[in-house]
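Hi support team,

I've been running sequence recovery on a batch of backbones for a student project. Most finish fine, but this one hangs at about 90% for roughly twenty minutes before it completes. I'm not sure whether the input is malformed or the queue is just slow. I've pasted the structure tokens below so you can try to reproduce it. Let me know if you need the job ID as well.

Thanks,
M.K.
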């Protein structure tokens, strides 16, 4: 028997922003796949194309951005070939997105209840009453107190953590098969973050949904992800199962990200920031984009085009001429 196709398959995806004569290749040839029930974390510094990748999967890249090439298959259907109406039906029902800035994702002039109901009724033919019940259930599932009262509030009456929980409730009200969460905890303070993370974990366990978790926070990844894809300058430079990538990073960029990670047990030790900054995506040279910041560069790195992802002794795949080496 052949195994079922992955729920999500991204193939050779390129997204370019064209503005004032500049072409920034925010996604430069990304392949990834995700199965039901699995959580894949896409990690990397700010400006590496993570959000653009998430938007492209949902068909939400807008001008000046454009998908120049590649395919996005969801349950075997090519999302890029769907009509805008069909795509809208899939978004929110089968695939939903939790954005970084919850407050910006909520409509300020509509009550919380109206917004959850609207989503439900846009995708299911239910009465207002039934939609209301579903909305209440979704909010209760998020551990939100007094959901019936919450439904009558407006976004400005919610704290940041509360607004993010409402966003999660909206995103999960219809039990989607794929959730794309873009920096779901970045704007929240640490204690609220922990609560949201617990809910995402719960959600993942309970629903069997697949999750594409976009984040620069490796602490979040360690708690939620099955697999990790490390993104740099629009490309995936390393991918593998989370435990392997964390314990034996193969790409020097992954190793640097891990070394720069704030650690609870590190006390007052200053952070080892990665020197330099991610490159300008409008002036990539074709060589490995990490070269200017890499401490392990060899001759090939200065002569040959950026290598493809290839299997490493650790079990991960990395795009590197001189990957990290582990004895034994
Ligand atoms: N709306 C936009 N207009 C022009 N360029 C953009 C836009 N959004 C993103 N970009 C370009 O794409 C790059 C990657 O952005 P983004 O996908 O938001 O990365 P990340 O989520 O990893 O921080 C940016 O550094 C910028 O060069
Ligand atoms: Mg982003």
């Amino acid at each position: 028997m052949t195994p079922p196709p992955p729920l999500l398959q991204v193939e050779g995806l390129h997204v370019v922003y064209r503005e004032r004569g500049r072409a920034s290749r925010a996604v430069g040839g990304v392949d990834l796949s995700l199965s039901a029930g699995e959580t894949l974390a896409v990690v990397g510094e700010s400006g590496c194309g993570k959000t653009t990748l998430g938007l492209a999967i949902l068909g939400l890249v807008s001008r000046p951005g454009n998908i120049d090439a590649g395919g996005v298959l969801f349950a075997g259907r090519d999302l890029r070939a769907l009509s805008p109406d069909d795509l809208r039906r899939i978004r929110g029902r089968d695939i939903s997105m939790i954005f970084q800035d919850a407050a910006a994702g909520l409509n300020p002039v509509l009550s919380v209840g109206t917004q959850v109901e609207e989503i439900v009724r846009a995708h299911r033919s239910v009465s207002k009453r039934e939609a209301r019940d579903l909305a209440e259930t979704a909010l209760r599932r998020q551990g939100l107190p007094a959901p019936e009262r919450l439904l009558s509030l407006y976004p400005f009456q919610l704290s940041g953590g509360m607004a993010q929980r409402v966003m999660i409730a909206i995103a999960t009200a219809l039990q989607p098969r794929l959730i794309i969460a873009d920096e779901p905890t970045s704007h929240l303070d640490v204690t609220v973050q922990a609560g949201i993370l617990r809910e995402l974990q719960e959600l993942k366990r309970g629903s069997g949904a697949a999750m594409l978790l976009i984040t620069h926070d490796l602490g979040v990844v360690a708690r939620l992800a099955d697999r990790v894809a490390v993104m740099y300058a629009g490309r995936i430079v390393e991918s593998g199962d989370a435990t392997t990538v964390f314990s034996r990073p193969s790409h020097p960029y992954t190793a640097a990200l891990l070394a720069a990670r704030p650690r609870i047990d590190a006390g007052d030790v200053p952070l080892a920031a990665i020197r330099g900054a991610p490159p300008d995506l409008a002036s990539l040279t074709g060589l490995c984009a990490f070269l200017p910041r890499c401490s392990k560069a060899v001759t090939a790195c200065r002569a040959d085009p950026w290598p493809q992802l290839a299997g490493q002794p650790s079990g991960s795949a990395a795009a590197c001429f001189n990957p990290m080496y582990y004895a034994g």
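--
Follow-up from support: It reproduced on our side and the slowdown came from queue contention, not your input. Residues 8-107+176-318 form a domain with the Rossmann fold fold (CATH 3.40.50.300). No action needed from you.
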